[in-house]
Design goal:
Blueprint lengths: L1 E6 L13 E2 H4 L3 H12 L3 E6 L3 E3 L4 E2 L11 H23 L8 E5 L2 H4 L2 H7 L3 E3 L7 H15 L2
Length: 154
């Protein structure tokens, strides 16, 4: 089983009407859109890593917010990472039920603040964690996704 966790973005739309939209449509930044397109093009089940909502399904209802993991205390960040790791295990238990956690591969498509220590926690639980754009700047990440999306068109 392979799942992708996609980091949210700072750029968000302010939904009209009720003020709610699908979480996947809330984030409008170029990097989020490239990450989303990349994981969707590969047919992966994916979830959004949100500073406000935690781990959320792309189709879950969300509304505009202003929060980043960079803006919270160390304790709040630690709570977020622990809660998110527990949520990933919940997905495994409730939705997919592979025989063991070691059968789960988690791709993290997010910035460092969202990947660590979450990746460490997931590895300690026995999951394989892949961080394909770790250590790359935003421009380099955009290029990485663009190259792979272009290669798929061939």
């Amino acid at each position: 089983m392979r799942i992708a966790l996609v980091g949210c973005g700072k750029s968000k739309q302010r939904p009209g009407g009720s003020g709610w939209c699908d979480a996947q449509d809330l984030y409008t930044g170029e990097l989020f859109l490239k990450r989303r397109k990349y994981v969707e093009s590969r047919g992966l089940d994916w979830w959004i890593l949100s500073a406000w909502y935690g781990l959320t399904k792309p189709t879950a209802k969300a509304r505009w917010y202003e929060k980043s993991l960079a803006d919270v205390s160390e304790i709040e960040r630690s709570e977020w990472h622990l809660y998110t790791a527990a949520s990933v295990v919940g997905i495994w238990c409730e939705e997919t039920k592979p025989p063991k956690l070691s059968d789960v591969v988690v791709e993290l498509h997010a910035g460092r603040a969202y990947c660590e220590p979450l990746a460490t926690f997931l590895r300690q639980l026995g999951m394989t964690v892949v961080t394909p754009v770790a250590g790359l700047g935003i421009g380099q990440q955009l290029q990485w996704y663009l190259e792979r999306l272009e290669a798929e068109k061939v």
